[in-house]
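User: Assemble these into one structure.

Assistant: Restating your components, then the assembled model:
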Amino acid sequence: MLAPSSYKPGSAVRVRDDWPEARGPCHIRTPHYLRGRTGRVVRHLGDFPNPEDLAFARPAARLPLYHVAFTPQSVWPDAGGTELLVELYEPWLEPA
Amino acid sequence: MTHQQAAPPPEGPPRAHHDMGGVPKFLCEGIDTEPHALTEFDRTVDALRGILGAKGMMSVDELRRGIEAIPEADYLRLTYYERWIRSIADNLLARGVVTEAELRAALDAA
């Protein structure tokens, strides 16, 4: 895993193509339609306790949260708009 | 406008039923953005969640996890605050704050 807050604005990142919901009870904040998609880090929003642990009342490490921008048409071919902006936690991102 | 969803990975697992963002069925239906009047039930459930949070008995993250765990047929049928009270009840039962017998007795008495 990467060190905390390792992505700078402009970094190309890929959302991990991981499906924990297929493995059992979980709580995740990464929408299904972004798994495996490539986007660009816009800004580091701060560090927040991992909701995936808070959801089960477990001790939660603080994780960097980013605004990541995607091209809407890369997700939905005939979508409108110019930017799809999503908040994503660092463990869901890998360098692209 | 219709939106065609890009194909997921061929062998990719299906999305969780609550994970509705970007699903064509919902994209094609307009969102009702008019203010909604809260019922007495809604206010009571909201207050209950606030008290449980203040007492450290249940976080909003646990609330959300409980909502997401509601089986799909119930999830789609229940209103917003009905999903909340379902999750609150499941969380408090799992945590042992209330027993099923106590909950049943309280519901029967209501």
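Helices of chain A lie at 51-54, 72-75.
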